[in-house]
Amino acid sequence: MIIKLFTMVKDEIDIVEDWLKYHGTLFGYQNLYVIDNMSQDGTFEKIQEYQSKGVFLIQKEDYKLKGDYMNELINDPKRGEYDIAYPIDIDEFIVYYDKESNNVLPFRTKNYFKSLPESDTVFKTNYINSQISNGNSIGYSRATIETEFGLYQDYQDMAKSFFNKRNWRGELDHANHYNTPDYFLTDLCLVHYHCRNLEQMKKKVINNVKGLGYNTTDIEHLQENTEGVGYHHVRHMIDILKGNFTINTNSKEGGKNIVSLKPLADFISGL
Questions:
Q1: What global pTM score does this model have?
Q2: 75 and 119 in one domain?
Q3: DSSP 258
Q4: Distance CA 212, CA 34 (A)
Q5: Sequence-ordered list of residues with C-beta below 8 angstroms from that of 195, at least 6 positions apart, any chain
Q6: Mean pLDDT across 134-148
Q7: Max CA pair span of the chain
């Protein structure tokens, strides 16, 4: 089974190499397709180091056209015949999740794809959102290794989609989402290292707001756009400008939806 992953990245130097190594080990480096959105922090150069292993890399400037870029890449006949198209963000890690034991099992991830029903077209994965618990107000320097646990969340119809490429003829939106009531919910999860440290989050907010065409220094302009596209990034940008932006580094382990991420950390650290 050939599983191809498609992603767009900008300025994610703290996590990009772990993403490449992890998914390259599981699915083959030649099945990783990366669009770099003109990174300035060494991300592009780091990905270039993996081109010799087979990673596909191009650069595109217009963040607002992310959905178009992804659709074009996924449907390009040059990709040849393959089984699964998986659009994914660079801070998301695919992992098999055993709900009964409440464990993530990275070593079972690749083989699980073989059990998916061939008749289905759209598959969904829920999220395990990583939590910061070191209490230092700054966060982690290498979140994939330092994060101890995450919070499982069922997004139902809004869970992330991937596709049986032999059947699917749809199009993604800007956020890599594909909304449909007709899908198969899998036992895969995306461990989402969205918030890793304070400076990384500020950089993410600024890049997203700027990429969507907003003025990142004009509070009045931003306040007029707190309900539009990327509104949550815009609200965070306002907090950054006011000096009020913080992240939660005091998450507590406990509750039925808490999942240990140590098996994933151990797997990644061993690569």
A1: 0.94
A2: yes
A3: E
A4: 20
A5: 130, 132, 139, 201, 247, 248
A6: 96
A7: 52
